[in-house]
Specification:
Mean pLDDT: 91
Number of domains: 2
Largest sheet: 3 strands, mixed
Low-confidence stretches: 1-10, 15-22
Shape: globular
Number of strands: 7
Order of helices and strands: HHEEHHHHEEHHEEHHHHE
Number of helices: 12
Distance between the termini: 58 Å
Strand content: 5-15%
Strand order of the largest sheet: 5-6-7
Length: 265
């Protein structure tokens, strides 16, 4: 019995050691001096200009030269929460959207090559539940940034067209960083471009059917809270002819398939 017990104990050591290691990296120290961040996020724009072409990312190139991305994420990780809370709403939103997109790029690079972001993790703890985002002295998840911070605190459904999940079905990764000084215009453009992508969203006027990305189904409450109905949210971003058809009513909505293949060049 003692031999069996010892064997069990020994078999548990790697798991216990793993847990111990995990406990040691759930947080990091942010000093009060580490609070300056370039609100233009020019460093991230430079990364995107270098590795993003035609809405596709050169992950292989980014994996070979991750230095700039890692350095940018370091600057974001160094921002203390009290400093962040002093910023205006647009500065906070731009920071969190850029953090989400940059952290997603790093997550893919760290596991590349792969066919889909969904290949990361497992059924119980997928890619969006990995503690890979360094924020305010803690290791957080992408889900935390999107759902607990962006969606919960800012109530702007256009966020769904700004954050990028590294998939072809996702709204395209913007080829520049989001900036507080032009955030409204950037979010409007992201919305218009996504709804103008007929591979994901289109109107069949003849059959009065509006085909939309599953994003509008998954986060229906965000869109209806803003505009009352999905149709009312969509109409400002479509052509005048399409708007006229939608506003007449009698439109049915069907959701298109989501392409989870990696947005790689």
């Amino acid at each position: 019995m003692k031999i069996i017990t010892s064997a069990i104990a020994l078999s548990l050591l790697p798991a216990l050691a793993s847990c111990s290691r995990a406990e040691k990296v759930t947080s990091y120290k942010v000093t009060s001096s580490q609070q300056q961040v370039d609100q233009s996020h020019a460093a991230f724009t430079a990364i995107l200009k270098k590795h993003l072409k035609n809405d596709m990312v050169d992950y292989a190139g980014l994996k070979k030269n991750p230095g700039e991305l890692n350095a940018y994420l370091e600057t974001l990780a160094a921002v203390p929460e009290p400093a962040f809370k002093k910023w205006n709403k647009d500065q906070q939103m731009a920071f969190l959207i850029n953090l989400y997109n940059a952290a997603t790029l790093k997550l893919i690079v760290d596991h590349y090559p792969l066919k889909s972001i969904k290949d990361i993790g497992n059924v119980l703890k997928g890619p969006w539940k990995q503690e890979v985002v360094r924020l305010f002295g803690k290791l957080e998840t992408l889900d935390h940034v999107e759902h607990d911070l962006l969606r919960k605190n800012y109530h702007d459904p256009r966020i769904h067209f700004a954050v990028n999940c590294a998939s072809i079905g996702c709204p395209a990764l913007r080829p520049e960083a989001f900036q507080a000084v032009k955030l409204e215009a950037q979010l409007e453009e992201q919305s218009r471009e996504f709804l103008g992508d007929s591979s994901k969203n289109r109107l069949d006027a003849k059959n009065k059917t509006l085909y939309l990305s599953p994003i509008f189904d998954w986060f229906k409450g965000d869109f209806t809270a803003k505009s009352g109905t999905i149709e009312k949210f969509v109409t400002p971003y479509v052509s005048a002819a399409e708007r006229k058809v939608i506003e007449k009513g009698g439109i049915s909505i069907k959701y298109t398939d989501y392409d989870w293949n990696l947005n790689k060049s």
